[in-house]
């Protein structure tokens, strides 16, 4: 952004910001003028201020927020127009060999110093006369006095020897001529060229209007990005909306935009395809960003700061894209958080918000890149690039831009799969450089005068809130000692006693095992939660017998795959682990590269838990007449808690032959399910399963699937097709954690 560089001002009038970045509240028609003029007491320093009791109370609240929303830039514009028109005149005390004025100063520097203007009679009277004849009669006198005290000399720290009223009193006769080419310096009170004053005034007015529009559009982006999930969720909960929602889900919520790809990555690791509904959000938000960046520009020519209309509009455009990028920063961070308040306020899943996080982050990076390129092109055209390139604000802007581009590249699926932990650490470090670079970019340029830093305050607040809640969750759960047991060659069972969480389905926790990797104690992974009581409850003999008699498909499948040996679930010493019998949670961990491959049998492994967190909304599937649970491998942990929450359940589970130990370990809870299809070494025929449920004639069937990407995507596609054609209403939840 282009603008003059002046020091901070403390001024409270009719409005005082109640909260940074939000709409200010009204003080009961109290006009409060606070002025500080600073000079060294030993060298003539004095402080002059007018404070009322209301002012002292109000000073505890930030008085500035955003331009147009608590901050005014050039008010009154007529005063700035007069000052710009006279500030270039040579005075008797001007220094003739002063260097050129920088591109951003717009009269703040030059051969005439503020001290020189402060004591020059004719400069002050010329400025006062111009303000008196140019400013509208509706402009309050106090506002003119305020401008005079802050701007008459070009520096807030250097006061004019006269007040505005005193300077007017010095004019005995109205001036009759203008400053001419033959005048070597100002030797009398002169008239200022009306066209010059008008051009300078309109330049400031249009610039402030543009900046106000930037703030307005930034707020629109933030509100729409945050509010859309809330509004849609509220809409689906309105009376009589359930039927419409049922009809829309097979077309918007369930299907993937690209074939059957969603959990599975696209070919060549190009990423994960969004669903149709997620894509509509992304398209809408991208279109809104384009509209906000492209619309609402007004030009005024001649312009005191820009040589032509192209430069002026390009200046506005470069500033606009920078503000929009700042406005997106808190939203990008919010969407990625574990403690994203949208998870609590909506019925959208964590995986959906992760998809939106990636796409909004790409839009953010595009705004950053466009802002930087536009600034570069503008300054080259204005022939000021070499001077700007040497400034600190420019250097920090480059830092922020480079790291934003690096995040865009290194956040690709290829790097996330290559080493997720390395990606995560690098992602956080690069994000810090983006925030710090952005901070110093505006700090060196504007010294916290125009409120751009409040976007960064909001971003940091979102990040620290998420991290603070994580710490509180870990502290609340406390350090625990877990029993780790190998149940198959690549699956470990982790029992954590003494944890009393709700036995609700669709929950996960992040587990830390700091003793496994002392050099990476922060490393943690998400796991589906199984209440240990669900695994250790005594079998109901009659229910078990009924299950055995009715599960003909399960028996046939087991025999076909080589059989499953039934053994009792291993017993743990609950009291020794600090928990009452049956309390605690159980995690099943599939060993992979990274921290989980270090898990071995252990009787007392230090474990920290951050959770529980919701995966997916469960209301829809739990209200169905029939609940079909489909799992693959260790994905059984994501669906098993549903058996305690629904009375009409069927489990279909396929596992590799190498995971047969997991089947034996879960024999207890599975034996209580009347209908099940457990396959070891063979795959499920999902299409046949769904067709069977449809033939049975259930009015509403809920389907929960958890497992490998192929299983989840195939189930999604098959349920979508049936929901569009048949009379049965299908509810689908895909429990696949997204990174």
UniProtKB/TrEMBL annotation:
Task: Please verify whether the record's keywords include RNA-binding.
Answer: no
Which SUPFAM superfamilies has this protein been placed in?
A: Ferredoxin reductase-like, C-terminal NADP-linked domain (SSF52343)
Which region is the signal sequence?
none
Q: What is its main location?
A: membrane
| Region annotation Disordered: where it falls in the sequence | 544-579
The superkingdom listed in its UniProt entry is Eukaryota
Cell cycle as a keyword? no
- Which residues span the membrane? 49-71, 217-240, 279-297, 317-338, 359-381, 393-415, 422-442, 454-472
What Gene3D superfamilies does the record point to? Nucleotide-binding domain of ferredoxin-NADP reductase (FNR) module (3.40.50.80)
FAD-binding domain mapped to chain residues: 484-531
Annotated keywords:
Ion transport, Membrane, Transmembrane, Transmembrane helix, Transport
Q: Could you tell me the membrane topology recorded for this protein?
A: Multi-pass membrane protein
Instruction: Name the InterPro entries on file.
Output: FAD-bd_8, Fe3_Rdtase_TM_dom, Ferric/Cupric_Reductase, FNR_nucleotide-bd
Ferric oxidoreductase domain location, by residue? 321-437
Q: Where in the cell is it found?
A: Membrane
Q: What is this protein called?
A: Ferric reductase transmembrane component
